[in-house]
Design brief:
The complex is a heterodimer. Chain A is mostly beta strands. Chain A is 0% helix and 56% strand. Chain A is built from no helices and eleven strands. In chain B, a hairpin with a 6-residue loop joins strand 4 and strand 5. Classes of the chains: A mainly beta, B mainly beta.
Chain lengths: 111, 114
């Protein structure tokens, strides 16, 4: 079964700082998704990465995919409080929308 | 346009009971998937349905079953509830399987087993 691991599990960072969340997965796939979840809320789609070397950016977040290393990163630039949430990566094992989620990274941005 | 809608939002049951959760996909979406999210963990895939047929099943016991209706809405049934079934159950919809695309999630049904 496809395994997806994220690290760190918990991240506390000061406003204005940069940091990277890592997502490793165990089998070949070139479909990776990043989601955000606020407490008590559902999942919001952030990025769709569909090929090796794909890079997507939205505001202070940038996601990339290295399919050979089976690794995706979510980079946070100059963090602000509004980014506090749990971030999940999800891998689609090329079967079509059967997502395997990572463990999640709980991000807290401190003023 | 309405997003994915799920009902009920909250449900309390006791061990051994049965529960049915409902999901309506985004208009035009024909694929529906169900996920279980235990507190503090990522969602786990339960089922995927497309055109009323099961297209995938995760590692869940036979107590879990689902179906999809001609209007593409879906129900998830869980029999003989256990304490460990307490979780947030999420429904997600997409256009069709096989196409790389994000799934759109509903707000979920929070199921508590006493």
């Amino acid at each position: 079964e496809l395994k997806v691991e994220q690290n760190p599990l918990f991240l506390s960072m000061q406003e204005g700082k940069n940091y990277t969340i890592y997502c490793n997965y165990s089998t070949t796939s070139d479909r990776l998704y990043w989601y955000r979840q606020d407490p008590g809320k559902s999942l919001e789609s952030l990025f769709v990465l569909l090929s090796n070397g794909a890079v997507k950016q939205e505001g202070r977040l940038m996601a990339s995919l290295d399919t050979k290393a089976r690794l995706s990163t979510l980079h946070i630039t100059a963090a602000v409080h509004d980014l506090s949430a749990t971030y999940f990566c999800a891998v689609d094992q090329n079967t079509g929308n059967q997502f395997y989620f990572g463990t999640g990274t709980s991000l807290t941005v401190i003023p | 346009d309405a997003g994915v809608t799920q009902s009920p939002t909250h449900l309390i049951k006791t061990r051994g009971q049965q529960v049915t959760l409902r999901c309506s996909p985004i208009s035009g979406h024909k694929s529906v998937s169900w996920y279980q999210q235990v507190l503090g963990q990522g969602p786990q895939f339960i089922f995927q349905y497309y055109e009323k047929e099961e297209r995938g099943r995760g590692n869940f016991p036979d107590r879990f079953s689902a179906r999809q209706f001609p209007n593409y809405s879906s129900e998830l049934n869980v029999n003989a509830l256990l304490l460990g079934d307490s979780a947030l159950y999420l429904c997600a919809s997409s256009l069709a399987p096989g196409q790389p695309q994000p799934q759109h999630f509903g707000d979920g049904t929070r199921l508590s087993i006493l």
